[in-house]
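Worked example 3 (structure in, sequence out).
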């Protein structure tokens, strides 16, 4: 899929490579979109991947003295979900991040990558548009700040030059009198692309009734409404925003504002929904978001402790990057640790981590069910986080700590979850079982006694084609009742 893979030690080195290679190079951060695009031929002519994942400081989430929040280019969706600052001061963005893929995807996928992919259905673009975000693009020519509303020129098209790197995302933190809400409509509760999505942010004046009973005093000072998957790019409902200014959030006002928001939608028919349905639901979802904010219930469904499927800080983010040695034919020689054992791998050029594990190392417990991060059968632990190995470039294994399903047992002693799968008869055809075991084992490591909600959250990235999941959930419940619920190193 590519010819060269460069693990850089500095941001300047990355910019120099982009300047030299131009449109034949791409930055690797999460790579969850990039790998699929390369596999499908959407991104043609890519010769060099530039890996910046080992650079320290690029995954920071900070608040400056002017009240602006800054996200580095390596900030993942799960980092946003876990950020107390963002939950408090940028709730719509956090809600959108929570809706992206599954835990394994959110552990790798970056918010910056979601913006760059530029699909009008991408979840995080909508709240960031409503937050009036500004991005910083860096190159050897310097930096330029671009308002997010000016970044997109069409479907999957942006103003970003081939030699530029998205270095930062920044937006004003929501003040105490500003509230926001994000709603996604999809065909499934998880692992689904938006049919449409809406982000609403309201700056309020007057006395707010937390029960929503005194709406006449709950007056909108300023409104921002962004709509996704209803036009070639994410759009702002400016007429609805202007109408809401100075209005109390009564049912009549909410209905009229929702009608005005619907007017900016120009959706298409596709496999997820016909245009007519999207158009109707634009009004419905906008009305629902406004009503939720009027009732001060935007946090009602937010989980107190979201499941991460991650228990450690990525150790590679705090050490100096190391370039793989090169074989005489130019292919990288990857040195890594898998299930506690050192490995040296050659002939992995252009491969994913999934293929490296299966073809080069012979660990066939890792399964390929979809090759696009949909089924979870390829789940492994990469530096302490559960990830979809089909979406990780093989050279990312350089210097990494990897655990596969073969590494769950300790000698002849099965992992407690493996024992529970046997006891509960949770195995059917067995193809998806390794992925379920890995997701479940990481959950038990993260929280030894999860409740039913946490179990279901942990399994949203894993697809079983045989059962109704009842036995799998039963097995996790049985394993959580033991004292030994964590993966042994």
């Amino acid at each position: 899929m590519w010819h060269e893979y460069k693990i850089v030690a500095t941001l300047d080195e990355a910019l120099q490579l982009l300047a030299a290679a131009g449109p034949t190079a791409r930055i690797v951060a999460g790579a969850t979109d990039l790998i699929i695009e390369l596999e499908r031929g959407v991104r043609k002519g890519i010769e060099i991947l530039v890996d910046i994942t080992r650079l320290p400081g690029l995954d920071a989430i900070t608040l400056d003295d002017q009240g602006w929040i800054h996200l580095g280019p390596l900030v993942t969706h799960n980092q946003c979900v876990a950020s107390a600052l963002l939950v408090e001061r940028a709730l719509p963005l956090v809600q959108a991040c929570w809706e992206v893929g599954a835990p394994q995807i959110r552990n790798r996928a970056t918010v910056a990558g979601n913006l760059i992919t530029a699909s009008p259905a991408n979840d995080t673009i909508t709240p960031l548009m409503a937050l009036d975000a500004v991005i910083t693009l860096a190159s050897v020519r310097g930096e330029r700040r671009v308002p997010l509303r000016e970044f997109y020129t069409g479907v999957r098209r942006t103003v970003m030059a081939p030699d530029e790197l998205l270095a930062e995302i920044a937006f004003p933190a929501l003040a105490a009198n500003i509230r926001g809400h994000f709603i996604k409509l999809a065909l499934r509760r998880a692992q689904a692309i938006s049919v449409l999505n809406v982000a609403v942010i309201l700056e309020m004046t007057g006395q707010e009734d937390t029960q929503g009973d005194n709406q006449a005093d709950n007056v909108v000072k300023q409104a921002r409404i962004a709509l996704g998957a209803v036009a070639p790019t994410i759009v702002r409902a400016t007429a609805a925003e202007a109408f809401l200014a100075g209005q109390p959030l009564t049912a009549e006002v909410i209905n009229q504002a929702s009608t005005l928001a619907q007017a900016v939608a120009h959706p298409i028919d596709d496999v997820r929904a016909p245009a007519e349905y999207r158009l109707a639901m634009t009004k419905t979802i906008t009305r629902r978001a406004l009503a939720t904010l009027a009732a001060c219930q935007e946090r009602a469904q937010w989980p107190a402790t979201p499941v991460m499927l991650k228990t450690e800080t990525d150790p590679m983010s705090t050490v100096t990057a190391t370039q793989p040695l090169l074989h005489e034919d130019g292919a990288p020689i990857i040195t890594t640790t898998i299930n506690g054992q050192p490995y040296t791998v050659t002939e992995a050029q252009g491969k994913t981590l999934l293929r490296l594990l299966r073809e080069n190392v012979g660990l066939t417990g890792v399964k390929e069910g979809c090759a696009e991060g949909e089924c979870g059968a390829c789940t492994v632990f990469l530096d302490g986080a559960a990830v979809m190995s089909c979406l990780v470039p093989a050279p990312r294994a350089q210097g990494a700590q990897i655990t596969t399903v073969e590494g769950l047992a300790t000698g002849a002693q099965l992992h407690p979850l493996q024992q529970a799968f046997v006891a509960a008869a949770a195995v059917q055809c067995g193809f998806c079982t390794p992925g379920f075991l890995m997701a479940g084992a990481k959950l038990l490591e993260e929280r030894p006694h999860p409740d039913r909600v946490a179990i279901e959250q942990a399994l949203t990235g894993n697809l079983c084609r045989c059962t109704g999941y009842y036995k799998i959930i039963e097995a996790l419940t049985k394993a959580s009742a033991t004292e030994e619920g964590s993966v042994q190193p």
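Notes: The first helix runs from residue 11 to 21. Confidence is low (pLDDT under 50) at residues 207-212, 315-320, 483-489.
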